[in-house]
């Protein structure tokens, strides 16, 4: 089937982005797909176009309310009326109405919690489901910050729904995570469509310095576009916000804000009313702002997976962008602290379970998540073993993060090799370690930029 015509007809685009056509044609042949494509590649279009070309509804599981709303909004903007987000924002009577009229919808977005509810499941079983989509599928993985225990039951729910053709989407691509997604969400091995995680338009920089604040100030002074500045803690986010609010249009975002504050912040940032956003890693998943030019890490993330996700928010419009990591020796201490904390949480959890005290009142938020897993999915022993394994993985991940920082060769090569790839073509604007970019004699002749001394000046003169 010629897919370019419907692409034009429904979306007005004249060509597919890498991977899209293969995914859609595989799904149309009723084969399951796990798609691992970089952020901004256009994963949503894969299920939308497939949905248009088939009878029946498309059920999309999405981890965040804001993400769901974005997606619904985008479909509506294109004139699609048969779309609904079935989530906790609906009133009881609205839910009832939707359930009674499910057949009228083409795209139904749900949170995994909602999908676990029997009324919705029952209503869905009465419908023809053309496609079952799990967005941000890396949330099944116990290794990531985005881990959602409710994601673990999505494979079983797929079965209950009569095993419709299934599409899992993610941008995170290490092999262990891929394996986990395959095991949990699919009954038989899916077709894996995986493209390079490399984002050529994002130049990579690390600056080891005792003067992070001063360097950040320089970066902000010369930046000519939107910037996210990631910090490890809420406290640091607020401190930097206070420090810079006199001079710039800045905002901050962390898990301590309520839903409406978060939405407002996102909107202000999207509309360029704020140019600089200080944030913890709570900010970003699913953010739909294409022209973020800079992602600065004031603190190092705990893994290259998270680093990749976070820098991936820059330059979704494919224009030159930069990822800058500011590192002061010893910064990693915060992660050792978190690792220790997490170990203690696990030990307390273990003690309570052994003492037969397994009601939620004994536990903090993360321990309650674990309890959900233990109660619904796994025996305590298996889960405790998983947690211990996870502690080891975290240590290794942090080592890899530090190795990236101390890399003396090409940073992009190291980053890609971590994700099991080899860098084939070096981009012109690669990384601060890669002398080829700036110091090449031909560049020097044609560009005054190469005369500049340190990489910061070089970086800032680039755009
Ligand atoms: P992802 O989920 O992979 O991060 P999205 O699905 O949010 O990416 O899409 C990012 C942007 O790319 C959207 O604005 C979408 O309209 C656009 N897009 C998707 N496919 C194409 C295409 N084939 N041609 C041009 N733009 C596209
Ligand atoms: Mg997406």
Automatic annotation (TrEMBL):
UniProt xrefs under InterPro entries: DEAD/DEAH_box_helicase_dom, DNA_helicase_ATP-dep_RecQ, Helicase_ATP-bd, Helicase_C-like, P-loop_NTPase, RecQ_Zn-bd
Keyword hit for Nucleotidyltransferase: no
Pfam assignment, any one: Helicase_C
Coiled-coil blocks: none
Transmembrane portions of the chain: none
Residue ranges of every copy of the Helicase C-terminal domain listed in the record: 215-367
Record carries keyword rRNA-binding: no
GO molecular function, one term: helicase activity
SUPFAM superfamilies named among the record's database cross-references: P-loop containing nucleoside triphosphate hydrolases (SSF52540)
Helicase ATP-binding domain ranges (all copies): 24-191
CDD domains according to UniProt: DEXHc_RecQ (cd17920)
Keywords in alphabetical order: ATP-binding, Helicase, Hydrolase, Nucleotide-binding
Identification of the protein by name: ATP-dependent DNA helicase RecQ
The organism of origin for this protein: Candidatus Enterococcus mangumiae
Lineage: Bacteria, Bacillati, Bacillota, Bacilli, Lactobacillales
């Amino acid at each position: 089937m010629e897919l370019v015509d419907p692409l034009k007809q429904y979306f007005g685009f004249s060509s597919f982005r890498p991977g899209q056509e293969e995914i859609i044609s595989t799904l149309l042949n009723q084969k399951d797909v796990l798609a691992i494509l970089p952020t901004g590649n256009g994963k949503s279009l894969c299920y939308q176009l497939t949905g248009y070309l088939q009878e029946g509804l498309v059920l999309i599981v999405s981890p965040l309310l804001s993400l769901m709303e974005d997606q619904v909004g985008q479909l509506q903007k294109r004139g699609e009326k048969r779309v609904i987000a079935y989530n906790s924002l609906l009133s009881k009577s609205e839910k009832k109405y939707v359930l009674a009229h499910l057949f009228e919808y083409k795209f139904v977005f749900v949170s995994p919690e909602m999908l676990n509810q029997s009324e919705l499941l029952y209503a869905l079983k009465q419908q023809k489901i053309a496609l079952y989509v799990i967005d941000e599928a890396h949330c099944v993985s116990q290794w990531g910050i985005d881990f959602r225990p409710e994601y673990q039951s999505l494979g079983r729910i797929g079965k209950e729904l009569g095993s419709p053709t299934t599409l899992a989407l993610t941008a995170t691509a290490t092999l262990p995570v891929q394996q986990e997604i395959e095991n949990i969400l699919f009954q038989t091995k899916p077709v894996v469509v995986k493209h390079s995680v490399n984002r050529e338009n994002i130049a990579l920089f690390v600056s080891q310095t005792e003067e992070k604040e001063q360097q950040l100030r320089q970066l902000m002074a010369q930046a000519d576009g939107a910037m996210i500045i990631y910090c490890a803690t809420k406290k640091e986010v607020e401190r930097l916000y206070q420090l810079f609010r006199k001079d710039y249009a800045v905002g901050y975002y962390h898990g301590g804000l309520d839903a409406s504050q978060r939405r407002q912040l996102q909107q202000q940032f999207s509309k360029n009313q704020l140019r600089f956003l200080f944030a913890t890693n709570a900010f970003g998943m699913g953010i739909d702002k294409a022209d973020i030019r800079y992602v600065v890490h004031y603190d190092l993330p705990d893994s290259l997976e998270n680093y990749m996700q976070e820098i991936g928010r820059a330059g979704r419009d494919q224009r030159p962008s930069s990822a800058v990591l500011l590192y002061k020796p010893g910064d990693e201490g915060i992660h050792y602290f978190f690792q220790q904390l997490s170990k203690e949480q696990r030990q307390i959890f273990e003690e309570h379970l052994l003492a037969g005290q397994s009601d939620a009142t004994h536990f903090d938020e993360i321990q309650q998540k674990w309890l959900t897993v233990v109660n619904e999915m796994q025996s305590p022993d298996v889960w405790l073993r998983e947690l211990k394994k996870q502690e080891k993985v975290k240590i290794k991940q942090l080592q890899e993060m530090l190795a990236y920082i101390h890399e003396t060769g090409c940073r992009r090569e190291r980053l890609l090799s971590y994700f099991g790839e080899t860098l084939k073509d070096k981009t012109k604007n690669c990384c601060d370690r890669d002398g080829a970019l700036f110091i090449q004699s031909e560049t020097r002749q044609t560009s005054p930029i190469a005369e500049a001394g340190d990489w910061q000046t070089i970086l800032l003169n680039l755009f």
